[in-house]
């Protein structure tokens, strides 16, 4: 049975879900202005009031869509002399792991109900405390096979269980292209000021724009694919200005059902990452890197760190809960501890 605390949280979020759905597009500029003003007023209070769900947001291909959760920064508690609308164009994008889903959907699944405290909504709130001055975006995987296996096919070729097949950069498709268009369309749908353009060179990047990427568990396959694309993306004059806005990448206890490439180990690919100037963070737990049945995960993680250091990067790294038995609860808890 669910505890009274979890049930209470579930009912609260279910009630709020209606208010989080996105508004249908409107072609009137006056209507857009009114909606933007109303949106700013509506999302300046408690965390629930600042949370908005955006359904079926398209990426670079209109048929490839992802649901997004947006948690706006708590501007009421920020100290700044700049106008609130223009002072902040900092964003965090989070890619979740298996089992994680919207609160009401997890509550309907026996395997999901016991992990409601790690629903996408709850993770958004956790990240909002970790990054209080930024717009926090939670990207829901486009497919949840059997309601538990997250599959990020819009970003990287994957089988039904979400095991990836990584590939190099293409100017026509791929993780960077989908990410940029998805964020641009999400910002437009949410009526954010100074939105990112879906494509273009340096003049298409809004002033002060920056992006932090966070992958947890299966969600790390998206970050890995971007690393494989990084060299080509940095050489593409249309994509390079966007890539330069990525300030940090966080790998949180990466894992997927494939038998290799849980962590990037290709030296040439990691050389590009080390040279990119991106701040690199790797947080792991014994659940992933100390599992004797999947010993390659720990070896790959070590190779990832060592190779980056050899190329002059200074990745931050931490093994959490190293004195505790490996367990899935601590696997999830790394989201709070990183």
Automatic annotation (TrEMBL):
Keyword annotations of the record: Signal
Signal peptide: 1-19
Name the UniProt record assigns to this protein: Chromosome 2 open reading frame 69
GO cellular component, one term: mitochondrion
Species the sequence originates in: Lates calcarifer
InterPro entries to which the protein is assigned, alphabetical: C2orf69_mit (IPR018881)
Gene, per the UniProt record: C2orf69
């Amino acid at each position: 049975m669910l505890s009274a605390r979890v049930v209470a949280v579930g009912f609260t979020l279910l009630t709020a879900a209606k208010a989080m759905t996105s508004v249908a597009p409107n072609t009137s500029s006056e209507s857009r202005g009114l909606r933007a003003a109303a949106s700013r007023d509506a999302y300046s209070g408690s965390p629930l009031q600042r949370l908005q769900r955006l359904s079926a947001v398209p990426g670079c291909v209109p048929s490839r869509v992802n649901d997004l959760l947006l948690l706006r920064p708590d501007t009421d508690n920020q100290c700044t002399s700049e106008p609130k609308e223009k002072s902040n164009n900092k964003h965090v994008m989070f890619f979740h792991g298996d089992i994680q889903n919207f609160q009401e959907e997890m509550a309907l699944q026996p395997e999901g109900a016991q992990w409601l405290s790690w629903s996408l909504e709850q993770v958004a709130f956790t990240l909002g405390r970790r990054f209080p001055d930024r717009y926090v975006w939670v990207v829901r995987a486009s497919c949840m096979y059997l309601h538990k296996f997250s599959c990020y096919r819009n970003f990287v070729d994957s089988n039904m269980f979400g095991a990836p097949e990584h590939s190099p950069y293409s100017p026509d498709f791929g993780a960077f292209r989908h990410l940029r268009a998805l964020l641009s369309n999400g910002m437009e749908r949410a009526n954010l000021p100074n939105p990112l353009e879906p494509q273009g060179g340096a003049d298409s990047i809004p002033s002060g724009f920056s992006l932090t990427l966070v992958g947890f568990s299966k969600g790390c396959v998206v970050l890995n694919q971007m690393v494989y694309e990084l060299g080509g993306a940095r050489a593409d004059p249309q994509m390079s200005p966007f890539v330069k806005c990525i300030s940090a990448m966080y790998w949180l206890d990466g894992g997927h059902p494939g038998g290799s490439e849980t962590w990037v180990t290709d030296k040439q690919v990691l050389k590009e990452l080390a040279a990119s100037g991106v701040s690199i963070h790797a947080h792991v737990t014994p659940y992933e890197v100390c599992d004797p049945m999947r010993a390659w995960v720990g070896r790959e993680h070590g190779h990832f760190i060592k190779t980056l250091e050899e190329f002059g990067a200074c990745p931050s790294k931490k093994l959490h809960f190293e004195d505790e038995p490996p367990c899935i609860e601590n696997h999830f808890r790394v989201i709070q501890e990183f």
